[in-house]
Amino acid sequence: MLNHRIMELGLLMFLTGTSEQTLDTPLELDIPLDCNINQNCWVVNYFDQDPSDKAADYRCGPHSYDTHAGTDFAIPDLAAMREGVSVVASASGTVVGVRSHMQDISVAEIGRSALKGLDCGNGVSIDHGNGWRTQYCHMRRDSIVVKTGDRVDTGDKLGLVGLSGNTVFPHVHLSVFRGDNKVDPYSVNGELSCTGTPEFLWASHVKSDLKYMPAVPYIAGFTAERADSKKARNGSYHDKIFDVDTPVITFWVDHYNLRKGDKLTMSILAPNGEVISENTNTMDENKARWFQFIGRRKPKSGWPRGTYMAEVKVYPFDQDSSAVRRKVVTLEIE
Q: How far, in Å, CA of 150 to CA of 168, rounded?
């Protein structure tokens, strides 16, 4: 589940005495990960702009949760985390806070009380001047390569994405501060913009890459068993070997940010183009994260040799067919 509540405590060095004039000086932000956005990293939770006990992202959608005061950039799975994905400075500034000793373990395993209020986990805080500051949470233990007082430029490595603090999936939580207040980089004035164009803090060269993205089939693959979400999210299905006698071929997909009414189609095609498994369903409720799979048992004669293609398509309920989200994976049987 992604609806864990994050209160970023214990890392921050609050800066005071800034004037309204300096706070109005614009800040431009770059992507806080060294990754290919929407290919091997994704924005999966936005800032909660609803002041009630409900939640709404800046486009009035459900892709947030109550009191979430930041932007979450996720990576594919725990295998990617172990390999290492760099967290980088979104803007130039001076490091004013660091923590790096906390263990990388899901809060679902240890419980929130074990965090002792350090919900941010390992992280870095950077002062950008003029009253602006950013904070990077849930970083990997002992991976941080900067120290308090260091000067960093936009894109400089700070450390690695981890699983520390109050989280259940590997990502970096980016918080932006203007004075003592947290700011949504997608809507600087904190207003909902259901149909209009909000004021972004994102630099011009990344605005199009960071456009609002509901319905994200972010990882997919094949396995030779009934697919299990924990194994998929751990990266356990990487590099599996298939042959003509593999007992079952299963195509699995993990999604972020599905909404009620979104239509999903999945299919597996044999080397000759024959459909060997397919499924279509429509979401009956919003899902922050959703795992699904289809498959087929080995035919008596064994699997034909060649290239198998599996495809998932997500049709957002409120957009035309040009907005379909599509992911394709292939499998070779020699």
A: 30
